Description:
This protein is of the alpha/beta class. It contains twelve helices and ten strands. The chain has helices at residues 2-11, 27-30, 51-65, 80-91, 109-116, 126-130, 132-139, 154-161, 182-190, 207-212, 240-253, 262-274, and strands at residues 21-24, 35-40, 70-75, 95-101, 120-124, 144-146, 173-178, 194-199, 225-227, 283-288. Residues 50-52, 80, 150, 177-184, 258, 261-262, 289-291 line the site of pyridoxal-5'-phosphate.
Amino acid sequence: MQQIVLMDAKIIPLEFNKIFTQKIEAEWLQEKNIQLDVLRLDLLHPVVSGNKWFKLQLYLKVAIHLQKTTIATFGGAYSNHIIATAFAAKNMGLKSVGIIRGENAMNSHTLKHAALLGMQLYFVDRNEYKNKESLKSMFDQPEYHWIDEGGYGINGAIGASTILEFLEDSYTDIIAAVGTGTMLAGLIMASNATVTGISSMKGNFSLEDAVRKLLPPQKLSTSFKILHDFHFGGYAKFNTQLLHYMNNIYTQHLLPLDFVYTAKTFYAIEHMVKNNTFCRGSKLLMIHSGGLQGNQSLPVNALSFL
Ligand SMILES: *Cc1c(COP(=O)(O)O)cnc(C)c1O
């Protein structure tokens, strides 16, 4: 089974024409006279799904401009950023190198997949991993173009800002999951809607500053919100309630969510709507930022839609 999935990643092309906005019909929305659409970036590709592709585009162009032949970056064993970098680099005719947190993590489907896409993997222990600057100097080669963990940076945000080019409608609010805050900065740059981020981490209150650092001067006074109460125990943590919720949402709306980011975001939206966070008549857009490949790390049969 895994072999087949691995082969698919190489042959399935990116399908931009599959991206669309899905209208969600539910009583909890109707009662408050609120519209909710979901921008289905997950449909771009079964493995590279979502925001990572957009965040990487400008970095890759810069690398080619600088005549670098190899993209080097960092990530964990199940990182969406690692697999997307491996794919995007290969797609552009570049080599890729991944510095991976934790020794001997080769049992991860994500890393097997990245290796199959030609990414060279190096494992470092968790302590060493913390100091990115020292890792960079340890592994650096003249042909390397480095991208920060998670694709954090201004070029990532500019890349992410193009996500909104897929919209046909305008919205009062845009809601998206937050990891590094790069996508959120891109959404704030490109839109006049009120942008709300749902943090995937527990108590990472430096995110607001991380987002602000990426905004251009004319957007610095724009207010945005990051909510820190929907992490379900912390980054990549889950419980049976969350898995149950994901299965229900899939049954009711045919909307597959990932347990690290988008399930928590959808849950947060439902919670906020029910608690009157948004005015009646609001038009909400949730960004489905992808990440579905990460669901393969869940116990077998945990989800009804894998
Ligand atoms: C990486 C990721 C995010 C977070 O994006 P940032 O730009 O790092 O905030 C959100 N959703 C999914 C599915 C992701 O893979």
